[in-house]
């Protein structure tokens, strides 16, 4: 019986870790990592900087999704972020990625 309980705990732990890993994989697959990293500035800001800047902002998720879709410049400097269409990252994947970033 202890073995069964241990398996259940392990499975729950793996299930809890899956969304974060899935979102990080989405970011890698969409090649966002070419310009961004979790904790260091590259061409664009670190994801942790983005999370800190928008912490508690009620419209952060929608605003960041729009920024990724349409691109822009000026928020983090003069290097523009190009738009990223649904051919690069689906709406569902983009939402999951932004949610993950905001939780960092």
Q: Gist?
A:
By secondary structure, this protein is mainly alpha-helical.
Could you explain how this protein is built, in words?
By secondary structure, the protein is mostly helical. The protein has a single domain, classed as Cytochrome Bc1 Complex, Chain D, domain 2. Helix content is 57%, strand content 0%. It is globular and about 25 Å long.
User: Can you summarize the main beta sheet?
Assistant: none
What is the approximate shape? globular
How much beta, percentage-wise? Answer: under 5%
Number of helices: 4
Helix content: 55-70%
The CATH topology is given as Cytochrome Bc1 Complex, Chain D, domain 2
CATH class type: Mainly Alpha
- Which residues form runs of ≥5 with pLDDT under 50? 1-17
Straight-line N-to-C gap: 37 Å
List the helices and strands and how they pair.
Layout: H1 2-29, H2 47-54, H3 60-70, H4 91-102
Helix pairs in contact: 1-4, 3-4
Task: Provide key terms for this protein.
104 residues, Cytochrome Bc1 Complex, Chain D, domain 2, mainly alpha, single chain
